[in-house]
Amino acid sequence: MPGNTAQLPGIKKILIPLDGSAAAEAILPYIAGMAGHMGAGIILLTCVPQGLKSGVPERQYLEKAAALLRKRGLGVATVVHRGEPGPGILEASREYEAGLIALSAHLKPGGRKDLLGSVVADVLRSRAEPVLVLREEDGRAAEKGWTPPSAIIVGLDGSTLSMTALPHAEALADTFGSEVVLVRAVLPADSLSGAAKYYGAVDDFAERYLAGIAETLRQRGRKVATRTGHKAPDQEVLAAADSWPGSIIAMSTRGMTGRVNLMLGSVADRIIRAQRHPVLAIPAARGA
Predict the structure, then answer these.
(1) How crowded is residue 198: how many other Cβ atoms within 10 Å of its Cβ?
(2) Nearest alpha carbon to residue 78 among 44, 31, 29
(3) Which domain holds residue 178?
(4) How many domains does the chain have?
(5) Is residue 84 part of a domain?
(6) What's the CATH code of the domain at 224?
């Protein structure tokens, strides 16, 4: 465990649902590194559908995974829940006061990308805790040695709701010594909305908007970069993350819509499904 640990505000425990699959277990090295750096405990959860026999095999499965984490000096609890995964994750997160839920992104047969079936969508719709969605690749890379994210990428659209991700991004940046990268997409005007002047005005407004937020963060001692562009919102955010290897994308899962605003619900969904970077999805109600 790193010697210089820092407690991320509000996150003393990380809940990791496991379903017996290699994909779900693949994220354990990443979360182990993160939890060790943060000084957080880990809760391993598996859900047993109603009607099945005792959860003894499931308990043994969880304890086997927990033993490997405990060897790294981490505090680990195991929980077997009777019922469906979605409600079970939410119930466990509340009962055990988990400040973060970590889930693995699954790739279904046939190439369609989904997230533990509909579990992630169910958890986000519930307005529960922040959810960190990871890829198998993130876990495999962390097996060779976990490193803090180089940057926390935040997609903003000018709305109050999009700003709900910012405090979480700041907290992560403080804990990991990461740069905060603010991203705003400027969607092109349609052919009826006028001339080049319009494009310039929109670009200038977006840049001033990000510059104002960046200055506030810099006054609080944080390292900040800004980025605007004319690609689709999800592509702008992903492109920014590509420029900062090992970064985490932090986004509100709901937002306002408009000519130059992001549709944060669908944008966050597309970013998660792209499976290119870890995504911290913040239910808007958490910051509202």
Answers:
(1) 12
(2) 44
(3) 151-286
(4) 2
(5) yes
(6) 3.40.50.620
pLDDT digits (tens, 9 = 90+) for 180-230: 999 999 876 554 455 555 555 777 888 999 999 999 999 999 999 999 998
Asked whether residue 137 is domain-assigned, the answer is yes
Task: Give the chain as a 3 state SS string.
Answer: CCCCCCCCCCCCEEEEECCCCHHHHCCHHHHHHHHHHHCCEEEEEEEECCCCCCCHHHHHHHHHHHHHHHCCCCCEEEEEEECCHHHHHHHHHHHCCCCEEEEECEECCCCCEECCCCHHHHHHHCCCCCEEEECHHHHHHHHCCCCCCCEEEEECCCCCHHHHHHHHHHHHHHHHCCEEEEEEECCCCCCCCCCHHHHHHHHHHHHHHHHHHHHHHHHCCCCEEEEEECCCHHHHHHHHHHHCCCCEEEEECCCCCCCCCCCHHHHHHHHHHHCCCCEEEECHHHCC
Point out which residues pair with 251 in neighbouring strands. Answer: 281
Question: In sequence order, what are the residues at sequence separation of 6 or more whose Cβ sits closer than 8 angstroms to the Cβ of residue 270?
Answer: 234
- Placement of tokens 């969607």 in the chain: 187
Asked if residue 97 belongs to a domain, the reply is: yes
At which residue do the structure tokens 């991700």 appear?
165
Note whether 184 and 261 are same-domain residues.
yes
Query: In Å, what is the CA distance from 106 to each residue of 64, 102, 153?
Result: 22, 13, 22
Owner of token pair 């944060």: 264
In this structure, are 135 and 157 located in the same domain?
Answer: no
120-160 pLDDT tens trace: 667 766 656 788 999 888 988 998 889 999 999 999 988 88
Does residue 264 share a domain with residue 156? yes
For residue 242, the model assigns a pLDDT of: 96
Identity at 245, one-letter amino acid code:
P
Both tokens assigned to 227: 């980025």
Region 230-259 average pLDDT? 82
Residues 227 and 268 in one domain: yes
Residues 11, 40 contacting (CB under 8 angstroms): yes
